[in-house]
Amino acid sequence: MTIDFHYLRHPMEKKKEIVMSGIRPTGFLHLGNYFGAIRNYVKMQEEFECYFMVADLHSLTTHPDTKELKANVHRVLAENIACGLDPDKVALYCQSHVHETAELYLYLNMLAYKGELEKTTTFKDKVRLNPQNVNAGLLTYPVLMTADIILHRASYVPVGKDQEQHLEMARTFANRFNHRYGEVFPEPQAFNFNQELIKVPSLDGAGKMSKSENQMATLYLADEDEMIRKKVMKAKTDSGPTEPDSPKPDYIENIFLLMKLVSSADVMQKFEADYNNCSIRYGDMKKQLAEDMVQFIAPIRNNVDAILNDEKGLKQIMEQGAEKANKSAHTTMKLVREAIGLKYY
Ligand code: TYM
């Protein structure tokens, strides 16, 4: 008998490290989602074992009306794929298709204390924005997120800066489980290739780009060219510096930051130099930024429709993703139940 050794893993070959992340289906994806998360998903898919999901259960904490849910779930999947994510290389799935997430969430809820959950910044923000819907799911949002991550025993979680606190909490809950019941989980870390986590600012100089707030100050991956130009040209500027090498006000810093994401190094250098010698013309800078944004967004936008129109293809992708994610979840949950002591025969 001949054996094809090509298919056998060498005993010294390192097992791939595990990566997990998610995006809520609460609207169109934007530049913040791309640079904070999806860009890294695409880079990581080659070398890591990746689990990326649409966080549909999380969206129920703030969006109880589910009329748009199906369309939004399809859009998040299609936009991820249009950005270069390959469903054959990663597990791309919906959170609600992996039922053991809910079971792990329940166990972790016994390890999460009301006081620490109430201190979460996103919880406090959401209570302020929507005081009539302060539900228990909102309070335990970071617990569900921990369940998503550690269900696959992931070590790395590519996310933007706004998720940093949730990741700290995920580490706390994973460690607490390990101390109470025995080592099952690695400590998950927020990941951006050894760099600071990213916050893509909004165009109005206030806060970050967001799926549902400040839509005219957010650049969506679905925006038409003219809309991109219009939004960029409206970005807040002033009459320019009067002293050489002045510090930049926040709203100007933001424009430079956006330019750094999509423009070439030459272009950046030119406008930095113009700023430092007080000859900068913000109108020209915004025109350049608008054109570079159009070049960046248009190919992604143009890919999305074909993917969205292929409902059968999307169904297949979701099924294939769920199968991979469920396989990993079963393995972890067997260890979890045993560690807790939920095994009586
Ligand atoms: P969500 O849907 O708000 O955002 C998805 C991803 O996009 C990043 N992001 C940004 N990054 C930089 N600048 C911005 N302006 C910006 N806006 C959004 C977010 O950091 C995130 O990486 N709780 C998560 C979803 C989630 C999850 C998980 C993430 C559920 N389970 C498990 C990681 C692991 C959320 O609401 O992301």
If you had to describe this structure to a student in words, what would you say it looks like?
The strands form two sheets. The protein has a three-stranded parallel sheet. Strands 4-5 form a two-stranded parallel sheet. With 345 residues, the chain is mainly alpha-helical. The longest helix has 30 residues, at 311-340. It contains 14 helices and five strands. Tryptophanyl-5'AMP (TYM) binds next to β1, α1 and α8. Tryptophanyl-5'AMP binds at residues 20-24, 32-33, 35-37, 55, 58, 145, 148-149, 157, 159-160, 162-163, 166, 198-200, 208-209.
Provide a brief overview of the structure.
The chain is mainly alpha-helical. Helix content is 52%, strand content 6%.
Count of DSSP E strands?
5
Measured between the Cα atoms of the first and last residue, the distance is: 42 Å
Bound molecules: tryptophanyl-5'AMP
Structural class computed from helices and strand pairing: mainly alpha
The gross shape turns out to be: globular
- CATH superfamily assignment of the largest domain? HUPs
The overall pLDDT average reads 95
How helical, in percent, are the residues?
Answer: 40-55%
| CATH class placement of the largest domain | Alpha Beta
Compressed to H and E, one letter per element, the order equals EHEHHEHHHHHEHEHHHHH
- Name the poorly predicted regions: 1-8
Total DSSP helices = 14
Tell me the number of structural domains.
2
> How much β-strand is present in the residues?
5-15%
- How does CATH name the architecture of the largest domain? 3-Layer(aba) Sandwich
